[in-house]
Amino acid sequence: MTAPVDSLPPGFLAALTEYVAIPSDSRSATPETMRAAAEWLAGRLSWAAGRVEETDGFPVVRGEWLGAPGAPTVLVYGHYDVQPTGDLAEWHTAPFELVVDGPVLRGRGVTDDKGPVLLVLAMAEALLAERGGLPLNVKFLLEGEEEIGSPHLPGYVRAHADELAADLVISADGAMWRPGEPSISIASKGLVALDIEVTGAAEDLHSGRYGGTVANPVHALATVLASLHAADGSVAVPGFAEGVAELSPQRRAEIDAVPFDDEEYRVAVGVPELFGEAGYSTLARLWERPTLEVNGITAGGKYTVIPHRAVGHVSCRLVGQQDPERVVAAITAHVTALAVPGVEVAVRADPGWVPAYRIEPDHPAVLAARDALAEVYPGHPVLLAVIAGTLPATTLFESALGAKTLFFSFATADEKHHAPNEFMRISRIGEGMRAWAALWDRLATTTEGTR
């Protein structure tokens, strides 16, 4: 599944080069930079009345082509913002310069989510040129805050729900599971993030003059964080797993049937051994089990003080029917009940909680997507996978628009999303265009059950 750069549609490489060059990092870019990215994208949607519309944060890009009376309507979702570059010394090439590197394109945002969105727009333009119309009605909603949790998207979507109404949302964001097989993700995990803050003295203290006479917040935080898990890797917070169903024998068998090499995975991630919740395979833990991870600790430094404050940054990926609010309450109750002398402990949850999302494997949209992928990848079984990460918009669309979201991205999970040297396989662009066209043709004939 490789393709040379000259297999790309005319003008695609030049357009993607311009798009990647806009450093639309939603964590640090100026409003002017983010607007420039939105306006560039709106320009690519001129055939669909593309326009930039305001939110309480960075703007969204909207568009619609409604020239198929009686056909279903789909809402295409994606985002134009990207992650920070990270350490520039780890990049082999300049992050905001698109580079052709053999069978791949490199640059920040090329696979998450600029390339996957641009291929949909290129496909739609090609269909219009070839057929004079599209097989169904299409609306576009492309946001600029996905990488920071979409904080202003809910307010915008609810305020414009009538305009955005659709039978189905199709997300160009996400990723296929592996490069060697076509896949559709039928679920994504929810997300809760929080800080556990431990405070001691009013200010940092000299570790010689005061050591041994007061509690050290870093020591206390280490005790608190260690209490969150049992020795077997399971989460030890009472009530954390409420809403998580035990895996059925059938689901375990389905997961066990997916080719997965633990040793290959271990080598790829670079650890001496794999570790996780006992009683589950690596893939079952990745796809079906909730997690509680300590992402970082902020305290003191390499100098001789007793820090007056230590903060543990924690995130939880949720599954099943876990309620984000109850998860926060369970962690708060567990942490504040611990006997940690000499300090005060508080839990401060970040905004933007997201529950887990799922679309049933027999949903008409999933069936249409499987058929479309089978057409583009003949002889390759289509895997039903799970996104272990979180896409905040999915549950929003279900609650505000009453529409399910189908993940149909042609990024691949190994393409260094969020990391230095992000890339996208050139072959995925042409394959993606053909598959999106095949999907739209199939959805156009789906007369019931799409919603």
TrEMBL record:
Domain Peptidase M20 dimerisation: 186-341
Superkingdom in the source lineage: Bacteria
Pfam families per UniProt: M20_dimer, Peptidase_M20
Keywords, in A-Z order: Hydrolase, Metal-binding, Protease
Record's keyword annotation contains Amino-acid biosynthesis: no
InterPro entries in alphabetical order: Bact_exopeptidase_dim_dom (IPR036264), Cyt/Met_Dipeptidase (IPR051458), Peptidase_M20 (IPR002933), Peptidase_M20_dimer (IPR011650)
A Gene Ontology molecular function term of the record: metal ion binding
GO process annotations (BP): proteolysis
NCBIfam families, per the entry: PRK09104.1
Protein name (Swiss-Prot/TrEMBL): M20 family dipeptidase
Species the sequence originates in: Modestobacter muralis
Taxonomic path: Bacteria, Bacillati, Actinomycetota, Actinomycetes, Geodermatophilales
